[in-house]
Amino acid sequence: MHIAIVVNTSWNIYNFRLGLIKVLLKQGHTITAIAPYDTYSEQLKQIGCQYEPVELDNKGANPLNDFSFTNQLYKVYRKNRPDVILQYTIKPNVYGTLAARLLNIPVINNVSGLGTVFLRDNLASRIAHALYRITFRFPKKVFFQNEDDRQLFLKRKLVKPHITAVLPGSGVDLNAFRPHPFKRNATFTFLVIARLIYDKGIVEYAEAIRQLKKEKVNANFQLMGFKDVSPLGIPEELLQSWIDDGLINYLGTASDVRPYIRQADCVVLASYREGTPRTLLEAISMAKPVLTTNVPGCKEAIEDGENGLLCQVKDSVDLADKLKKMIGLHDEELKRMGQKSREIAERKFNEEIIIQEYLKALQEIEKKKPTLKL
Q1: Does an H or E element contain 259, and which?
Q2: 2-171+351-367: which CATH topology?
Q3: Cβ-count burial of 237 within 10 angstroms (0-12 exposed, 13-18 middle, 19+ buried)?
């Protein structure tokens, strides 16, 4: 089969879909990666993918830009004529499905997160709901990354139940993200890895740290992630004020997060809602305790009190309390939590689970392909 994979960045394809791509290539399928160009586009070609660049405005909701994106995908789909298209992230899911429908190419969509439009009730949110309701009639399969998101789509009649299924996030390569011998830092170290936008709970993290500093709690509070210049992003001056006040140790970005996770005592994510956050899955795979919000997506990676702690969403006071509680744990309890994290990762989030589900979905589409009569 000729399989196209469409995502909002080449970085995303390479970092989150590489395991699936390698299996498909090994089975003899042709893979065309479709995404905006970045440094990972060349790496996709090096592993054996064909590559088609498209331009995509990830930050805005300009109808003209979105129409242009749909038109670009239509032209790329028509040129390559894949047998099936795997689409991820919001705009490829919506506009890619429209383009594929015009060409009668089957698609499999993956709702890897609902985005900010589902956290707000405004015009953009209503438009997004309408677009999902129109376009999600056409996919052969729609994968969700947690049951809450699936139920929300079903409740709002955005998708038919029989084409839906739930996957445990994007999965993790358990060999790449593996545990190292337990060692607690002399100064307890927390690590947040997230895009620097409000909805990731970055402000609550800073406010919680400020409270702990007032209480003379000693810890190293790290933050890693790229700066977002959209209206949803944390303003540069606000981030700098946290750094200047000694609240946060900002680490910038990294192509490989494993050394930073390895050196942390606990990985934190105070997000408002997720699909299933990759950073938490990578952390538990490396046998780290986690601290996250009790919201859809985040809570799937944690058994409260077993491999970490849950806190209330948008509540810096509760977050501060849980951060302090984590610091107060004895070494043996931290080690036990880490071991439990790895156990959960092996049981629920091995990327082999995701790969097998995709292979089954592709086989179903292959079976239903019309045969030419001689």
Answers
A1: helix 258-263
A2: Rossmann fold (3.40.50)
A3: exposed
pLDDT (tens digit, 9 = 90+) per residue, 312-332? 999 999 999 999 999 999 999
Nearest Cα to Cα of residue 340 among 309, 297, 295, 373: 309
Which letter does DSSP use for residue 68 in this model?
A: H
Nearest one of 59, 147, 162 to 111, comparing CA atoms: 147
Tens digit of each residue's pLDDT (9 = 90 or more) over 173-202: 999 999 999 999 999 999 999 999 999 999
Q: Could you give the residue range(s) of every CATH 3.40.50.2000 domain in the chain?
A: 2-171+351-367, 189-348
The dihedral through the CA atoms of 143, 275, 156, 85 has a sign that is negative
How far is it, in rounded angstroms, from Cα 235 to Cα 196?
A: 9
Give the count of beta carbons closer than 10 Å to the beta carbon of residue 55.
10
CB 293 within 8 A of CB 199: no
Task: Please tell us whether the domain made up of 189-348 is placed in CATH 3.40.50.2000.
Answer: yes
User: Which pLDDT does position 232 carry in this prediction?
Assistant: 86
126: its two tokens: 């209503």
Arithmetic mean of pLDDT over the chain: 92
Closest listed residue to residue 288, CA positions, set 241, 326, 231, 253: 326
Amino acid present at 200: K
- Which residue(s) pair with 347 in the sheet? none
Q: Are 314 and 292 in contact (CB under 8 A)?
A: no
User: If we measure between CA atoms, which residue out of 289, 282, 258, 285 comes closest to residue 189?
Assistant: 289
* pTM tops 0.90, yes or no: no
Give per-residue pLDDT as tens, 204-248: 999 999 999 999 999 999 999 999 888 889 999 999 999 999 999
What would the two tokens of residue 326 be?
Answer: 């984590």
pLDDT at residue 66, as a whole number: 79
DSSP reduced 3-state for 8: coil
Strand 164-166 relative to strand 50-53: parallel, antiparallel, unpaired? Answer: unpaired
pLDDT of residue 372: 46
> In the chain, where do the E strands start and end?
2-6, 30-35, 50-53, 84-88, 107-111, 141-144, 164-166, 189-193, 220-224, 249-250, 266-269, 290-293, 308-311
Q: Does residue 328 or residue 370 have the better pLDDT?
A: 328
The residue type found at 336 is R
Is residue 292 within 8 Å of residue 298, measured between CB atoms? yes
HSE-CB for 64 with a 13 A CA cutoff? 0
| pLDDT the model gives residue 56 | 85
